[in-house]
C-alpha cells in the first residue's frame, strides 16, 4: 500500500473541527457523504451512507427510481460491519505499520475504498464456487502482487510479493462473500413478511 498506518488518522480523539470530534478518517467520510447527499446519491435505492443522520437534502431534482426491492430493503445495511472490518481487521494487515505523516492522504484513500460498493458486494455463490473463487483470487494476487525482478540465468529465487496472496483470498472468504449472503438473506426474509 502507498501509505503507512498513521494511527493518528484513526484516533477518535485526535481530530476536532467545526463541532466535530473524532478521527480524521471518519470526518472525511462524513463530509464526503454530505457532498454526495447534496447531489442525490443516497436517494438511489442501492446507496447507503455510513453516517445517514443529518445528511442534507439533494440540491438537484429527484430521480424517480423504479421500486424493485421490497419496501423493507431500505432498512438493511451492513455498513457498520463493513466499517469495523475495514478499520479493525483489513487495514492494519494491509498497510505497513508506522507513521509517514500522510494522515490526510491515507484518510482520503480510506474514504474511496469504503465507498467502492460494487467490488465489496458482488459475490454470492455455492461452497464449491466460493472455494474456486478464493483459489482464483489467491492465484491472481500471487501473480499481480509480485515484485518484478530481473533474474540472472539460473537464478531461481522465490518471488517476493507486495502483500500476502492468502490475505486477499481470506478477505473474499471471510468477509465479502459472507456479508453479501447476509444482506441477501435479510432481503429474502423481509420479502416473506
Automatic annotation (TrEMBL):
It catalyses: chorismate = prephenate. GO terms for biological process: aromatic amino acid family biosynthetic process; chorismate metabolic process. It is an enzyme of class 5 (isomerase). One of its GO terms (cellular component) is cytoplasm. Keywords: Isomerase. GO terms for molecular function: chorismate mutase activity. InterPro entries: Chorismate_II_sf, Chorismate_mutase_AroQ_euk, CM_AroQ_sf_eucaryotic. Its EC number is 5.4.99.5. This is chorismate mutase. It comes from Quillaja saponaria (Soap bark tree).
